[in-house]
Amino acid sequence: MLVGLIIACEVGFWVLLAGGLALRYLAGMPRLGAALLLCEPLLELVLLVASFVDLKNGGEPSWRHGVAALYVGYTVGYGHYTVKWLDGHAAHRFAGGPKPPGAKYGKARAVHEWQLWLRTLAAAAVAYGLLQAGIWYVGDTADTAQLQSWQGVPLKVLGIQAIVAATYTIWPRKAPEGAADQDAELAGTKR
Fold it and tell me: Could you report the per-residue pLDDT of 72-121, keeping only the tens digit for each?
């Protein structure tokens, strides 16, 4: 049941996102679209409650609970960022909005990567905390080794993201000729 709910929440996330953006930009109903986008956190709340109910009803702690915790952690760390990023691109594509700025080169890209690392840190902290709460919740009544093993996953992802950010800091990507001027024009400033 929990695996089906995880899949349903993931599908629901993208359906709500596509529906909200379509209402905002294609149907010309920005308030209704925004309301639909604001419903997305409810999916994660349902998944979180279902995961704890499953444990309370004697469900054996397993990889399903680990995936649910990671999913909720990702949503906390990256959910708003993902929606805002896609909203900016939809506004540019369908409503004539400005092209969303993006840091591609140099120090700006390194800063961007470290900001992503902070999001990953938030996601990892939430996932780790939910897994620990599940361990405490189950207590001695069941084997919690599966939940404990899943606690390493967000920490590994955090480490990988730190390596990626560090590489952009140590070896910054250089802009090709002419790209620096184009990036400055997009950002509205000259370097």
Answer: 999 999 988 998 999 899 999 988 889 888 888 999 999 999 999 999 99
CB atoms within 10 A of CB 54: 20
Q: How far is CA 75 from the centre of its chain?
A: 4
Is residue 80 packed enough to be buried (19+ CB in 10 Å), middle (13-18) or exposed (0-12)?
A: middle
Alpha-carbon distances of 130 from 39, 95, 136, rounded to whole Å: 22, 40, 10
Q: What global pTM score does this model have?
A: 0.81
From CA 49, how far away is CA 55, in angstroms rounded? 10
Directed axis angle between helix 152-170 and helix 106-138, to 10°?
A: 170
User: 123: closest CA among 178, 71, 52, 163?
Assistant: 71
Q: At what angle do helices 63-95 and 152-170 cross, to 10 degrees?
A: 40
Residues 6 or more apart whose CB falls under 8 angstroms from that of 121 comprise 77, 158
Question: Is residue 178 predicted with pLDDT exceeding 80?
Answer: no
Q: What is the mean pLDDT of residues 112-132?
A: 95
